[in-house]
Amino acid sequence: MKKRNIIGDRLYNLRTKAGLTIKGLHEATGISEGHISGMENGSSFPSMKKLTILCEFYGLTLVEFFIDDGLSIALTDKQRELIKLSDTLTEEQIDSLNVFLRNIYNNEKTDD
């Protein structure tokens, strides 16, 4: 039984949905054709840098990349901005932001 290659399958589906060949994706992103092929067939894995390049090319956040198409949610521009900004925060800052957001959410729930 073939092992499922979730990342490779997703990369392949995004590329073919965009109507691109491996060579076309290489030309658009600078990622080698061999590496693209390897990522898609599961013989290699993308680094975070390469995955970020691919997500930016396809107009996705990393979160959207890992959400199955059937469960995909549409993010607003403001939500995308929050996710991008969160990439620049330290773990402590992210924890503080989560506490802050939970407080806002809980206060709005009690106001209803």
What does this 3D model show about the protein?
With 112 residues, the protein is an all-alpha fold. The chain folds into 2 domains: 1-69, lambda repressor-like DNA-binding domains (434 Repressor (Amino-terminal Domain), Orthogonal Bundle), CATH 1.10.260.40; 75-112, no CATH class. The chain is 68% helix and 0% strand. Helix 1 (6-17) crosses helix 3. The longest helix is centred in the last third of the chain and has 21 residues, at 91-111. It is elongated. The model has no long low-confidence stretch (mean pLDDT 84).
Low-pLDDT sequence parts? none
Strand content: under 5%
CATH architecture of the largest domain: Orthogonal Bundle
Q: Report the radius of gyration as a whole number of Å.
A: 18 Å
CATH superfamily of the largest domain: lambda repressor-like DNA-binding domains
* Helical content (DSSP H or I, runs of 4+): 55-70%
The end-to-end distance, rounded to whole angstroms, is 52 Å
Order of helices and strands: HHHHHHH
Please report the total strand number as a whole number: 0
- Per DSSP, the total helix count is 7
CATH topology of the largest domain: 434 Repressor (Amino-terminal Domain)
Integer count of domains:
2
SS-based structural class? mainly alpha
Give the overall shape: elongated
CATH class of the largest domain: Mainly Alpha
Biggest beta-sheet profile: none
Overall pLDDT score? 84
